Amino acid sequence: MRQIFSLSDFTLPHSTPRIGIFGGTFDPVHNGHLILARDAMEALGLERVIFVPAALSPHKLGSQPAPAPLRLEMLAGAIAGEPGFDLDASELDRPGPSFTIDTVEALRARFPLARCIYLIGRDNEAKLAEWRRYEELRQMTEFVVLDRREEGQAEGVRAVPRRIDISATEIRERIARGASIRYLVPEPVRKLIEQHRLYR
Ligand code: ATP
């Protein structure tokens, strides 16, 4: 095994800052989202991860999420104290459904020197090509998959390799049947859900 290392053996700061964009319904945000965002930040050398809650996800039309201000408040509570995590509420200011291309365009205007990396769950990967103006989107941002399931990944798409079996669906179902969600979501999120009697 090699014992001597030179400076170039270590990762040097990237000259181009990279920002991660993490879109979703976050209904509610859970610890899976947070662990994966932190993993992505470490693995990809991201300067920050921006959580972007969707007004209404085009992939989830038909289901009614919790009110946007509450999803936003839960996200704010979940990421408080983590300096690398940010929140962008711009999709909530536009009438839904929210399209990623609009968000990425706005973030690129806000961070013109940064490279944008868009984080998606494996379940979204299969339908990526159907996203609005996908070809343009692909030029503007690199997609990185949060490795949710075990299938092989599409060629050329990088992955953050951790599997966490937590979903917002499970959280909502547990609440509906009176089961505890402690340890699945951050405490501020659990308290807000309780206070506003969400997902009952
Ligand atoms: P739901 O169960 O309501 O579909 P969700 O838990 O998938 O919700 P979203 O708000 O849709 O939460 O998630 C935002 C993004 O994070 C999506 O790309 C989703 O695939 C991904 N994601 C959520 N949970 C996980 C997880 N445990 N592992 C990997 N990716 C995840």
Short description:
The chain is α/β, with parallel strands linked by helices. The protein is 35% helix and 16% strand. Strand 1, helix 1 (31-44) and strand 2 form a beta-alpha-beta unit.
Could you characterize the architecture of this molecule?
This protein has helices at 31-44, 68-79, 90-93, 100-110, 122-125, 134-140, 168-176, 187-195; strands at 18-24, 48-53, 85-87, 115-121, 141-146, 158-160. With 200 residues, the protein is α/β, with parallel strands linked by helices. Helix 1 links the parallel strand 1 (18-24) and strand 2 (48-53). The protein has a 6-stranded parallel sheet. Helix 2 packs antiparallel against helix 8. The chain binds adenosine-5'-triphosphate (ATP). The site of adenosine-5'-triphosphate (ATP) has 18 residues, from helix 1, strand 4, helix 5 and helix 7.
Task: Reconstruct the topology from this structure.
Layout: E1 18-24, H1 31-44, E2 48-53, H2 68-79, E3 85-87, H3 90-93, H4 100-110, E4 115-121, H5 122-125, H6 134-140, E5 141-146, E6 158-160, H7 168-176, H8 187-195
Parallel strand pairs: 1-2, 1-4, 2-3, 4-5, 5-6
Helix pairs in contact: 2-8, 4-6
Number of strands: 6
Mean of residue pLDDT values:
86
Which percent range fits the helix content?
A: 25-40%
User: What is the global morphology?
Assistant: globular
Which strand order does the major sheet show? 3-2-1-4-5-6
Main sheet: strands, sense, barrel: 6 strands, parallel
H/E element sequence: EHEHEHHEHHEEHH
H/I helix tally: 8
Catalogue the unreliable spans: 1-10
Strand content: 15-25%
Cofactors and ligands present? Answer: adenosine-5'-triphosphate
Structural class: alpha/beta
